[in-house]
């Protein structure tokens, strides 16, 4: 398994190696096996480097904790997120309501975890859509190059020049505000960044020996792109993916803040923050808890993404 | 095509230049800003003690041209800049302003108005009857495209001229001499003196308007005749008004300077008040954040004033299940209005069991509600459940179809809708879904009748119950979005317009309202609005008028 | 170089044309109209309004008229703010956004670079971790929380700053922090990773072996070579920041361009929607164009081809 940097590492070493060593490698089947195993250890290596990065692991476990809790807590917690209790509105955190209640008397602890479901769902799905479109588009751009690349790249650039906020708002006006609308709106331009990263990777990889070999054996373009090139570009793709998720969660929160979020009584962290800002004077817990959850999650995804990048790229190449 | 290349180049060039220049000018600008701010705060004008009054508006007045105004923001600013024939006092009763004398003919269809002779435009011209004739005909002119032209449809042939079928000469307004205006109405309207206070009836200066169609969009070109002059209009930022030294009644005006900043965020408005940057919040000039109202009312820092507006939910009466009156009644009776007001709306609103708000005037100094009490039904959960079951049986339904409550995107409406849905769930055992739409889309959906229950609010243009009866429940009214259709109600309302006496007219409107709510539950009334206002100590006579707009013109600072 | 610029420019014009067309279609497809109001007006009034704004004509005629006017440099008159021309509205509101944007971009670059350099110089040491944690915290607190919290504590409670407005130099502090927190973190992390790589490169080692002080090495050699990715990012960042941040402008009541992005759509103010779109696209393209040129000028390797490859 070689990616962008093992390529450069290889180059450095080639100065020290004599040409006949290459011939040995080609002939000796056993050696080929060993190389195969070496690539396995590359993954192990990545894992090792990742697990030794304390901050990244902290991020990882926070993410795991958030995901598990947002599924489990709403099941076992005695309150639901929609029933009003108008006799107990705006209660400060107490034994019954750990995070207090909001202005309709709803339990904030429950709502924060329900909000986590929505925010994390939006983040992950939007990132996956970006991944899918971005990898296909970027893969094709990068592999074919020339005119195809030119045209597709131009298209992406035009799309990129549209005021994103305007498009999102236009869309939310056309379609009713809902999870689907928000995800669609975010995906319209969200994939472009991923596509450009994949394009750059593929351009570097497509002239590698294994790709050329596959081509000369008659493999189709799609097979080469998606079987050989994309898996080798997995590092940067994964890193981009981890960093897309917090971006999407942020965008959702931002849209909710503008009143364009999910349909109530469902609430994401963004809608809860929007709601809580007005309560900052008298009932600060309504802002504090959703905000702190949002920040911790964003923090976790970022440090984990950073750690992942470091692990994939020990030299920390861009 | 070739031409369209030009624009981006220009913009680009301008941008690059602007970028460098602004960078250079950046620090300069800042200093200037601070200077003016300091001047405004400390140093006074030559005459007497300066009295500045500062408040905010959430959005900029779209226009200060009387013919083109259509919203509260414009109306608040215009009340200081222009002087009409009458002004409404704090009770919402008309008082003569530019008019010296208003005489109605026997049949109530012709008005002869004498205009005072000492009023001047800010360009020095005298204000004459011709200015009114010109202004009204201009607003009715189809080419002016005035949205509030219908306020002038009371004039004889007003509608005909506006729809392009008549000429300006046919319209029932004429300046018989420089200071006498003769007005002919198509129907007797006893509230015509109130109408004269509306901004669509304000005069404009012909010379100014003819010269420049955009005259009212900039400070330097606007010509006004009111107690204040527009000194500065920084678009999207602020408006500064100063006392007009040539105003005919200038001794009654106390403020020397009024600063109106445009601030959208209500939390920011509140903090501006807290840090002494503004003197007033409320009544369409900023609003106290909902989460703040209760503590502030309790501590006496904020005052609650009733507003002549009603908050209600529309039933789609042409669609199952709300074509059934019993189901409509069940939903209406199952809402605990007082609880909703105390814990959700939180501004001491009055629960509504009718349409016409309590502050709307009736006759003989009594309010309409004092003459015709509006308790057309009571809340009762058991009764509601029974009615719901009966209604479902009548419709041949075993259970309710899926129902959605539609509201326009806003934090306040959302909270109320969530609470109402929760009450229906608890009290009726029904599930109602929620949907919100952005304002423009919402209006279109609601007009097209694509809803089950939809949020609505209605305010008064004039202080008269016709606003809440004819406009809302007449079968042919363009505002009857629930498509409530009872011919009896239509007939009563039509007759009320041509009744011989104002008393009979009011009586018929009251009957129509009673049928629509008590018998038919055409809509679900929730509450009559209030406005929560705060004012800095030392200010006097700044109030919320009957319609809930700030009335600051006669204010004073001690 | 000239060909490169000419090519870029032709592309920009074509993109603008496509963008204008697409926005025009999309805008007319959304429900609602600029002329509606809650109170039903008479049919006559409605007709007059439509005629006045030319909305009674078929769409392709409206489109043609728009393009024609645009070609003459006329972006039309706002349908909501009576008789205010769109270019004037944009021009007036752009001033505050630009001033604030420049402050925020400068802050992001300066603070971001300092954090990034410190982190790279003390790689894998306490200062590195501290700088990165500060950066990530800046990234993790959204402006929708940061702005109101700062406003409440620093302005209202402590009275150190004005609650709103942009009248004096001090008024820039809070909105600038709110706008710059994210970009600071981004730049710091970008610079850190590039610099760590460069500090390990041979020419730096040579410099070290020549006995140059660490400070000189960092500033004279490493920094200059690590700024490339930051320059690239600056293009997009600048466009994003100076075209306004809706939330920050709303909270601090800054009469900037940000709110037009939301209100133009909410009001269905067609000419303003078009104007805003064109303006934003031009800014974005110009910023990217400038950063492209800067890139070519800074990096001699790019001068030859400008294409990624071997």
The value of Rg of chain B in angstroms is: 26 Å
- The number of E-state strands of chain A comes to 0
CATH homology superfamily of the largest domain in chain B: Dipeptide-binding Protein, Domain 3
Distance linking N and C termini of chain B? 65 Å
- Secondary-structure-based class of chain B equals alpha+beta
CATH class descriptor of the largest domain in chain B: Alpha Beta
Which parts of chain B are unreliable, with pLDDT below 50 for 5 consecutive residues or more? Answer: 1-46
Largest interface: B-C, 76 and 73 residues
Order of helices and strands of chain A: HHHHHHHHHHHHH
Q: Give the CA-based shape of chain A.
A: elongated
* CATH topology term of the largest domain in chain B: Dipeptide-binding Protein, domain 3
Helix content of chain B: 25-40%
**What's the total number of strands of chain B?**
21
Largest sheet of chain B: 7 strands, mixed
Question: How would you sum up this structure, described in words?
Answer:
Chain A has 13 helices and no strands. In chain A, 75% of the residues lie in helices and 0% in strands. Chain A is elongated. Chain B is of the alpha+beta class and 558 residues long. Helices cover 34% and strands 20% of the residues of chain B. Chain B contains 17 helices and 21 strands. The radius of gyration of chain B is 26 Å and the shape is globular. Chain C has 310 residues and is mainly alpha-helical. Helices cover 75% and strands 0% of the residues of chain C. In chain C, helix 1 packs antiparallel against helix 12, helix 5 packs across helix 7 and helix 7 packs across helix 9. Chain C starts with a helix and ends in a 6-residue tail after the last helix. Chains in contact: A-B, A-C, B-C. The interface between B and C is large, with 76 and 73 residues.
Strands, helices and their partners?
The complex is a heterotrimer of chains A (318), B (558) and C (310).
Chain A: H1 4-16, H2 19-27, H3 29-51, H4 54-76, H5 108-144, H6 146-161, H7 164-174, H8 179-205, H9 209-216, H10 221-232, H11 234-257, H12 269-277, H13 285-312
Helix pairs in contact in A: 3-13, 4-5, 4-13, 5-6, 5-8, 5-10, 5-11, 5-13, 6-8, 7-8, 8-10, 8-11, 9-10, 11-12, 11-13, 12-13
Chain B: H1 6-41, E1 52-57, H2 72-81, E2 86-88, E3 94-96, E4 99-104, E5 110-115, H3 129-140, H4 158-162, E6 173-177, E7 180-184, H5 192-195, H6 206-211, E8 228-234, E9 238-243, E10 257-262, H7 266-274, E11 280-281, H8 290-298, E12 303-315, H9 325-333, H10 337-345, E13 350-351, H11 368-371, H12 381-395, E14 403-408, H13 411-428, E15 432-437, H14 439-447, E16 453-459, H15 466-473, H16 487-497, H17 502-519, E17 523-535, E18 539-540, E19 543-544, E20 550-551, E21 556-557
Parallel strand pairs in B: 1-10, 14-15, 14-16
Antiparallel strand pairs in B: 2-3, 4-5, 5-7, 6-7, 8-9, 9-10, 11-17, 12-16, 12-17, 13-17, 18-21, 19-20
Helix pairs in contact in B: 9-12, 15-17, 16-17
Chain C: H1 2-29, H2 43-53, H3 59-71, H4 86-121, H5 126-140, H6 143-157, H7 173-199, H8 202-209, H9 214-242, H10 246-251, H11 258-266, H12 270-298, H13 300-304
Helix pairs in contact in C: 1-12, 4-5, 4-7, 4-9, 5-7, 6-7, 7-9, 9-12, 11-12
């Amino acid at each position: 398994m070689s990616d962008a940097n093992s390529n450069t590492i290889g180059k450095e070493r080639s100065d020290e190696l004599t040409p006949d060593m290459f011939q040995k490698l080609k002939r000796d089947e056993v050696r080929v096996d060993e190389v195969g195993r070496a690539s396995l250890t590359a993954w192990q290596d990545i894992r090792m480097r990742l697990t030794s990065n304390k901050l990244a692991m902290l991020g990882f476990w926070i993410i795991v904790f958030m995901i598990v809790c947002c599924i489990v807590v709403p099941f076992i917690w005695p309150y639901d997120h929609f029933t009003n209790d108008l006799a107990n509105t705006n209660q400060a955190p107490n034994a019954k309501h750990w995070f207090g209640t909001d202005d309709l008397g709803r339990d904030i602890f429950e709502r924060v975890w329900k909000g986590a479901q929505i925010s994390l769902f939006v983040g992950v799905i939007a990132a996956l859509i970006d991944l899918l479109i971005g990898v296909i588009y970027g893969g094709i751009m990068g592999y074919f190059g020339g005119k195809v690349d030119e045209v597709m790249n131009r298209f992406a650039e035009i799309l990129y020049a549209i005021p994103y906020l305007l498009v999102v708002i236009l869309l939310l006006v056309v379609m009713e505000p809902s999870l689907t609308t928000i995800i669609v709106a975010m995906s319209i331009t969200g994939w472009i960044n991923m596509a450009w990263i994949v394009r750059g990777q593929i351009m570097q990889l497509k002239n590698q020996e294994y790709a050329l070999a596959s081509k000369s054996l008659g493999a189709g373009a799609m097979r080469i792109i998606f079987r050989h090139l994309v898996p080798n570009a997995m590092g940067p793709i994964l890193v981009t993916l981890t960093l897309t998720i917090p971006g999407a969660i942020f965008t959702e929160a931002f849209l909710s803040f503008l009143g364009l979020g999910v349909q109530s009584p469902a609430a994401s962290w963004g809608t809860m923050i929007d709601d809580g800002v007005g309560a900052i004077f008298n009932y600060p817990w309504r802002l504090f808890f959703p905000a702190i959850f949002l920040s911790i999650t964003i923090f976790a995804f970022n440090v984990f993404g950073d750690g992942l990048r470091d692990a994939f790229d020990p030299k920390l190449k861009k | 095509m070739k031409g369209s290349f030009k624009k981006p180049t220009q913009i680009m060039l301008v941008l690059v230049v602007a970028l460098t220049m602004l960078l250079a000018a950046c620090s300069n600008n800042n200093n200037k800003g601070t200077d003016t701010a300091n001047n405004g705060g400390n140093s006074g004008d030559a005459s007497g003690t300066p009295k500045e009054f500062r408040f905010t508006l959430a959005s900029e007045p779209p226009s200060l041209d009387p013919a083109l105004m259509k919203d509260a923001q414009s109306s608040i600013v215009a009340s200081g800049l222009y002087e009409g024939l009458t002004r409404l006092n704090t009770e919402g009763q008309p008082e003569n302003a530019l008019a010296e004398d208003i005489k109605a003919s026997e049949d109530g269809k012709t008005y002869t108005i004498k205009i005072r002779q000492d009023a001047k435009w800010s360009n020095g011209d005298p204000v004459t009857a011709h200015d009114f004739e010109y202004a009204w005909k201009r607003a009715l002119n189809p080419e002016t495209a005035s949205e509030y032209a219908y306020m002038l449809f009371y004039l004889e042939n007003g509608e005909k001229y506006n729809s392009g079928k008549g000429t300006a000469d046919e319209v029932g307004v004429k300046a018989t001499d420089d200071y006498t205006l003769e007005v002919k109405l198509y129907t007797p309207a006893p509230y015509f003196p109130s109408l004269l206070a509306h901004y669509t009836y304000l005069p404009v200066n012909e010379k100014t308007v003819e010269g420049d169609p955009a005259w009212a969009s900039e400070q330097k070109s606007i010509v006004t005749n009111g107690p204040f002059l527009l000194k500065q209009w920084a678009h999207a930022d602020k408006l500064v008004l100063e006392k007009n030294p040539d105003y005919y009644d200038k001794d009654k005006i106390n403020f020397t300077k009024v600063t109106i900043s445009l601030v959208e965020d209500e939390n920011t408005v509140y903090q501006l008040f807290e840090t002494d940057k503004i003197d007033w919040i409320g009544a369409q000039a900023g609003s106290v954040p909902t989460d703040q109202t209760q503590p502030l009312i309790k501590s006496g820092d904020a005052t609650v004033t009733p507003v002549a507006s009603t908050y209600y939910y529309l039933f789609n009466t042409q669609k199952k299940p709300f074509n059934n009156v019993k189901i409509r009644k069940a939903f209406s009776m199952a809402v605990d209005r007082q609880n909703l007001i105390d814990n959700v709306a939180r501004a001491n609103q009055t629960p509504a069991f009718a349409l016409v708000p309590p502050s709307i005037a009736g006759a003989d100094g009594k309010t309409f509600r004092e003459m015709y009490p509006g308790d057309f039904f009571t809340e009762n959960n058991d009764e509601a459940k029974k009615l719901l079951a009966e209604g479902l049986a009548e419709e041949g339904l075993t259970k309710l179809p899926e129902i959605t409550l539609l509201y326009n995107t806003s934090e306040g409406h959302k909270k109320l809708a969530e609470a109402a849905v929760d009450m229906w769930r608890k009290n009726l055992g029904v599930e109602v879904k929620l949907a919100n739409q952005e304002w423009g889309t919402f209006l279109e959906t609601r007009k097209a009748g694509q809803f089950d229950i939809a949020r609505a609010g209605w305010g008064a243009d004039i202080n008269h119950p016709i606003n809440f009866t004819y406009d809302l429940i007449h079968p042919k009214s363009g505002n009857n979005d629930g498509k409530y259709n009872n011919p009896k109600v239509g007939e009563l309302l039509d007759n009320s317009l041509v009744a011989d006496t104002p008393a009979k007219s009011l009586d018929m409107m009251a009957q129509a309202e009673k049928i629509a709510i008590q018998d038919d539950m055409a809509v679900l009334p929730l509450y009559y609005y209030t406005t929560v206002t705060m004012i800095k100590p030392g200010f006097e006579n700044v109030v919320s008028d009957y319609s809930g707009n700030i009335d600051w013109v006669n204010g004073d600072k001690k | 170089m000239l060909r490169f610029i000419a090519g870029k420019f032709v592309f920009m014009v074509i993109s603008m044309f496509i963008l204008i067309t697409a926005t025009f279609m999309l805008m007319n497809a959304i429900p609602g109209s600029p002329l509606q109001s809650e109170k039903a007006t008479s049919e006559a009034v409605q007709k007059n309004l439509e005629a006045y704004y030319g909305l009674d004509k078929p769409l392709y005629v409206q489109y043609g008229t728009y393009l024609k006017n645009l070609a003459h440099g006329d972006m039309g008159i706002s349908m909501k703010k009576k008789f205010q021309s769109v270019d004037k509205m944009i021009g007036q509101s752009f001033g505050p956004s630009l001033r604030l944007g420049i402050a925020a971009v400068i802050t992001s670059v300066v603070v971001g670079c300092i954090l990034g350099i410190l982190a790279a110089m003390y790689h894998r040491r306490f200062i590195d971790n501290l700088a990165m944690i500060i950066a990530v915290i800046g990234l993790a607190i959204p402006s929708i929380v940061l702005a109101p919290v700062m406003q409440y504590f620093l302005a209202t409670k402590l009275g150190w700053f004005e609650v709103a407005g942009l009248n004096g130099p001090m008024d820039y502090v809070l909105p600038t922090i709110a706008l710059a927190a994210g970009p600071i973190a981004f730049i710091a992390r970008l610079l850190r990773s590039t610099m760590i790589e460069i500090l390990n490169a041979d020419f730096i080692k040579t410099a070290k072996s020549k006995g140059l002080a660490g400070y000189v090495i960092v500033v004279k050699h490493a920094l200059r070579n690590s700024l490339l990715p930051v320059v690239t990012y600056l293009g997009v960042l600048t466009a994003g920041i100076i075209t306004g941040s809706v939330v920050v402008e709303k909270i601090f009541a800054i009469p900037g361009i940000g709110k037009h992005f939301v209100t133009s759509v909410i009001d269905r103010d067609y000419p303003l929607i078009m104007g805003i779109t064109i303006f934003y696209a031009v800014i974005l393209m110009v910023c990217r164009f400038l950063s492209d040129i800067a890139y070519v000028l800074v990096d001699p390797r790019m001068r030859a081809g400008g294409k990624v490859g071997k």
